[in-house]
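WARN retry 2 of 3 for item q-0093 after timeout on previous attempt; input resubmitted unchanged.
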Amino acid sequence: MAQKPSIPKGTRDFSPNEMARRNYIFDTVKRVFQLYGFQQIETPAMENLSTLMGKYGEEGDKLLFKILNSGDYLSAVNSEELTASNSSKLTTKISEKGLRYDLTVPFARYVVQNQNDIVFPFRRYQIQPVWRADRPQKGRYREFYQCDVDIIGSDSLLNEVELIQIVDHVYRFLGLKVVIKINNRKILAGIAEAIGEAERIVDITVAIDKLDKIGIDKVNEELIHKGVTHEAILKLQPILHLNGSNTEKINQIERVISMSSTGLQGIKEVRTIFNYLSGINLESEIELDLTLARGLNYYTGAIFEVKSKDVEIGSITGGGRYDDLTGIFGLSGVSGVGISFGADRIYDVMSQLDIFPKDAMASSKVMFVNFGEKEECYCLPLLSCLRQAGISSEIYPDSDKMKKQMVYANRKGIKFVVLAGESEIEKGMVNLKNMETGEQQLISVTELVIALKV
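OK item q-0093 returned
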């Protein structure tokens, strides 16, 4: 009995129409990246586990897809290790590589390996898939694309401002209304100091980052589980509920963390960014969100998250400043900042809102009806002529019934069909039919190119 075909959970096939829409997103994002002077790179789908492990925190490490070593991968494992039920230790013996979890850590590795050939500050963009062994659900996949843009080798906050402009530019082009949430990891460090838990900054930020997903009660439970004191949790509550304008929230949190030099530096950076933005015309809403934490451990300064205002879904863009990510690979003192657009979530939002432009559907603009061998020979040079003029075109490969060929053109969304039968060939003409209006006109080859160019 034949096996029923399937694909792994959390992965998807994409139809021609879906690919056309996805490419519309990729092309839009790429166009904006290039508009701001960024250059494209690519890195391998797999990296050495030594490159990936320890960069995303304990929870992130658990979500890494690991690849078994080639050949007899158990040859380096003894019987005790096999029966010890210690998967972490066993993994180090049978797996040396893993699928990349994001594009930022591979980028840091790339920078270190190619530092002598890179012009700093290095403005790079990268559009490739990543993999996470997460539980699949709406808007969350195990294989998905990220569209990253980073500036590395500069401490200037102008870089953060440019990234915010890029976000605004992309979503303006895509027709999405979004809110850009901003915070700073230094402010979060100041909050941890203010509540007396400076050493638990990672635990606090990881828990706070889940606030939108699990709610305040579950966040508090997680903090208790991590060993944060009840007193500290009580002090944290009013901070998580600060409201008002961006300026009012900055002033309020400044009073709370006034004894923390790190926290005050974060306040200064946030104020600088908002001062720059005040002179720029942005369509997107900008919000200071003091509960925004971004769970990844490598962020050190400004952090960003973007959410759709019209569709309930997780963040569709996120990122931040990382001061020494390259230091773990031996190149210290190189600061960077970047953001990542989640193409798959953007696709889901645009599909739900039904705002993809009709001309984003990739298909031939014109199809030649096939009447037989003589007509094929007449049409082939005309096809070449149209393609040289940049007009996407095709000929139906078989001389089937007219109805079947027209159904094919309709189902593919082909706007025009060309009919060149015996009478048209005698006149050196063709009949051009508009499939949307039903209008038909007898024209020359030169007129055909002009008509289809419009």
